[in-house]
Structures are given as C-alpha cells and as structure tokens.
C-alpha cells in the first residue's frame, strides 16, 4: 500500500492519531487568538508576564504555552521563558498579513460545529440529497453581507478573515496579471471592494465598479470614500442572478462561483457575458482543484477548501469543469495565469476567458 499524506517519519498509527486529535491544535490556536496572547509577547517573555498581560492563570497558561511549543508556534528558550516563532508571529494583530481573524473564525466552535455535519453531507438521510441548499445572502468569498446567518460577533470576524484573504490575493493579481489595455474593471460579487481598491491603488490608469447586493455596495462606497479612491471607483447594488452592469473591459469573479452549484454558477457567468462586449475578458480567481491529489500542501489546501464549500452548498472545481461552465455561458478560456499569494507561498491560478 502506498504511503498516504505528507512525508513523515512517524509511525502510521501515530500520524493517524495526530490527525484524529487535530481539533486540539485548532482549539489551542483559537484560545491564543481569544487571549490575544501573541500580542503580549515582547521578544523573549516569561510565562508569568504573559499571564499578567492576558489576565490568565499562570500555571494553566504555562501548560498551553508548552503545548504550543510542541506545535512550533512558540519556542521555550529557557525554562518558563517563551518567544513567538516565525509561524506564531502571524497571530499578532499588528502584522499586515496577520492570521488572527482567521484563527478566530476557522478554529472557533461555530466553524467546528459546521464540520461536525460532514457525515450527514456525505450520506444524507433519505430525501435530503436533492433538497435545495439555502442560498447565501451574499457572495461569501467576496467579504460582503452575513452569508450564513452567523451570529453578529462571528460575522464580524468572518469579514476580517475574508478581507485578509482578499488583500493577499489582490496583491498577487497585481503582481502576476498583465493589465495592459485595461481601463475599466468590474468586480462582480466584489463585497466591500477590497480587491478593486487594491488594484486601482497599484494601477493608476484603471477605474472600476464593484457590484454586489445593495447593502453591501453601500458599505463599499463608504470604504472607497475613506480610502480616497471614490473618484475612480463606483459601487453598484443589484443581484448577479438577474443582471450585471455593462461597461467594463475586464470582469472579475473572485471566490464567487465556488459558492454555488453548476446551474447557478453558469447563470452568474451568463449574466456577466450578457453585460460584456465580444473580445472583452473575464478573470476568475478561484481555487482550481487538481485532477489528482497528493500529500502536497497545495493539494491539502485544495481538498480542505472543497470540503469546506461542500458544507456551504458549493464546490471547488477542476480546470475542465470550469472550462465547461465557461463554454456553456458564452466564453472561451484563453489562458491560465499563475499567481502566488505572499502569505502562503503556494502557486494558484487565475483563469482568463474571452467573451465570444
């Protein structure tokens, strides 16, 4: 039998036990975020000082810190004295590419309860498999609205986490895609406009429109004004299942299509095509599933993302699956553009298509 998962020198049973109990690591990282423990470090710091800064019980915090040492999040330089590792530093809130909000969201109990329903998704009760999935209130990947009817405090963390991912992807798109000849970019399902604002700040000849639900578009307009890009960016409210505004020469869909089944995704693409002039471009920024998976980091992230979308009623797709959707909606796929979001260092791909 071939080895499974990432390379490891551990015995298979020991590795499996770690996977079974991996929730303990998530819970510990969620506690770190709740306590804002990473912010309490000032270089090498004693556990008693950390306890005082976070209002924690010293002996109990010491046990948590030593667990984090075993995970590589902190290092114990001397008995009772700890420092953040390069990995642990990503949990600080003052870091531009901080994963603090991501830890609060993905390692929190609300998210874990969703994953507890996985078996029911794989083997639903009689009659449930064909039942329609509840539609998100907005495009979850775009960072707008409260897509899964979360409690307000969780929804706020969700917005922070999605903003982190969007900013990282936006910079990678700026670095990796050739915008020569593009004057008007329309971001469909663009949420609060973080992606579009990043693009126009880096590309002074470009203007744009973010299109999302009316209440989301209103917040995007406020953000554009606050960032000083309101003269170049417009926020338009509407429903991308009904129509998409015309006038762009490049349309963007970032983490929108994976929220929906094939029929709905094709409908969104068709509405984009109706708004576009033949020859104009569509750029899809989504996770593209490999045709076959391995134990690599890229494969692990893709597979995890697909199961996460399964729980939401959506799916990640392979390149042939995206090509089929595009063809049915009136597009021709033209090329793949590699990008590397800096926070993770794993190459992903933009799918470029042309309206025909």
TrEMBL record:
GO terms (BP aspect): methylation
Keyword Nucleotide-binding: no
Active site: 258
Compositional bias per record (Low complexity), positions renumbered to this chain: 129-140
Domain O-methyltransferase dimerisation: 18-91
GO molecular function (one): O-methyltransferase activity
Matching PROSITE patterns: SAM_OMT_II
Keywords, in A-Z order: Methyltransferase, S-adenosyl-L-methionine, Transferase
Stated name of the protein: O-methyltransferase
